[in-house]
Write a structure and sequence with these properties.
With 163 residues, the chain is mainly alpha-helical. It has one domain: Adenine-specific Methyltransferase, Domain 2 (Adenine-specific Methyltransferase, domain 2). The chain is built from 8 helices and 3 strands; from the N terminus they run H-E-H-E-H-H-H-H-H-E-H. The chain is globular. This is Prophage PSPPH02, adenine modification methytransferase.
Length: 163
Amino acid sequence: MHSPIIPWMGGKRRQADRLIPLFPPHECCVEVFAGGAALFFMRPQPAPVEVLNDINGDLVTLYRVVQNHLEEFVRQFKWALSSRQIFEWQKLTRPETLTDIQRAARFFYLQQHAFGAKVSSPTFGTAATGPAVNLLRIEENLSAAWQRLAGTYIENLPWLECA
């Protein structure tokens, strides 16, 4: 069982131990509103066919980059610092000016440092109850997600088209 790679507003991380046992046996699992994909990452046994879908293009880009370009993604954080100033600079950076890997790194940085995992209008926040974000351990933390995403179809469709 793995952890979701980003915090997500409305995520099911805390309910996973109650929800996953309710899943009926199945051959295909389609998450039409993937979000942070807590149930996907925390399921002990993957389905033979799995699909993650979300309408948020930045989120989908993050999953695709972790799936296909983890090493280069991790390299984006080699000299990165956790700071309010860098957070604000990342917010000001226009995603359309970035490569997919840079865009995924920007989105990941903002989600890791945003108070309450807010996607729209995020504010820098730190928790007094847990450790600070450790950008040096990204590869270690994401290697399980990279393995879990292998063979998963990742879509960026309206939910009706995906379902």
